[in-house]
Amino acid sequence: MAKIVGVVTTKREYVGGGAPIIFARDEAHLQMIAHLLEKVMDCSAHSVDEELFIIVDHK
Question: How much is the pTM?
């Protein structure tokens, strides 16, 4: 079962809820953080749009 384990965004108004939220300063920073978390957490980073990634554990 897949589980959202984190959210990375540049827009505070896009997110809320129970998963940890990380705010990036711009699009390049957003992508760097999402891909770093993907590797460190052994999860998948999925781009929802150009300002929002979700980090998903598919195990």
Answer: 0.91
